[in-house]
Amino acid sequence: MSTDTLVESYGPAFAKTPSAADAEVIVVCEHASNWIPPDLNGLGLAPAARDSHIAWDPGALGVSRHLAEQLSAPMVEGCISRLVYDLNRPPESPTAIPPASEIFDVPGNRNLSDAARTLRVEAVYTPFRAALEEEIQHRRKALRLMVTVHSFTPVYNGKTRTVELGLLHGRDDRFARAMLARQPEDNTWNVQLNEPYSASDGVAHTLDLHGCDNGLLNVMLEIRNDLIATEQQQQAWAAALAPWIRSTLREAFA
Question: Are strands 100-101 and 165-168 parallel, antiparallel or unpaired?
């Protein structure tokens, strides 16, 4: 079987939601799906593990879609599980194809040959990166801000997390800090800067590559996934986040 055929067997690596040509914000959801191509045999994981947070960011896609709608923003989402390839990691990162995640071993990611790793990059990372970059370049005249949306588990390795919303940044901290300083008066969420992750955890790849390198303001929203488990919760979060993002962009970066 040719390399091109193998790449095609993975299925689409991304999906786009269009918007008006003059959109100022683009929304990105790298970990939107827990889809594992059939040829990979579930990476050797039990169904419960494939459905859990190790395989994707539960709730993040729903928030992203509603947020993009609220902001009249285009959206680019990943369509393959981060266990196959983590779109928020560069190919040279050891965690781009993780051999383990939290308490779970990932048998299908162990002892991969160079050819097998290259196939994952070509089938998942390269088309997603190209699609996102194309969307940004197509909109350069109006686009000002990239927002990436993620979710995190309320308990990690036995430790309870009290933070509810993390505002994360990479090389450019301007928008994350501006959002933190402009929390709505009626906000009841526990909002923290660079929690429960930070750039030192390797989570700023998309922000830096597609945000900073293109001169875009950027921020990563990390939402605790028990708070966005339902469609109603996802809509409510997007409805609260959208005006906060708009006002920050207008007031701090006029």
Answer: unpaired
Q: Are 168 and 123 in contact (CB under 8 A)?
A: no
Query: Would you call 118 exposed, middle or buried from its count of C-beta atoms within 10 A (0-12, 13-18, 19+)?
Result: middle
Q: Is the pLDDT of residue 2 over 60?
A: no
Q: What's the average model confidence in pLDDT over 118-147?
A: 97
Per residue in 40-93, pLDDT (tens digit) is: 999 999 999 999 999 999 999 999 999 999 999 999 999 999 999 999 999 999
- How far, in Å, CA of 50 to CA of 36, rounded? 8
Asked whether the CA dihedral 9, 14, 16, 21 is positive or negative, the reply is negative
Range of the domain at 75: 3-252
CATH code, 97: 3.40.630.40
pLDDT for res 103: 83
Give the DSSP letter of residue 201: G
User: Of 24, 26, 236, whose CA–CA distance to 148 is shortest?
Assistant: 26
- Partners of 25 in the β-ladder: 145
State which amino acid sits at residue 211: G
Which residue is associated with the tokens 């690596």? 13
Q: How far apart are CA 214 and CA 161, in angstroms?
A: 33
Whether the CB-CB separation of 91 and 30 falls below 8 Å is answered with no
Instruction: Name residue 146's beta-bridge partners.
Output: 26, 218
Separation in Å, CA 139 to CA 12, 52, 142, 184, 199: 23, 35, 6, 29, 27
Which tokens go with 51?
């459905």
Residues near 250 by beta carbon (within 8 Å), at least 6 away in sequence: none
* Number of domains present in the structure of the chain: 1
pTM recorded for the entire structure? 0.96
Which sign does the torsion angle of CA 204, 210, 215, 220 carry?
Answer: negative
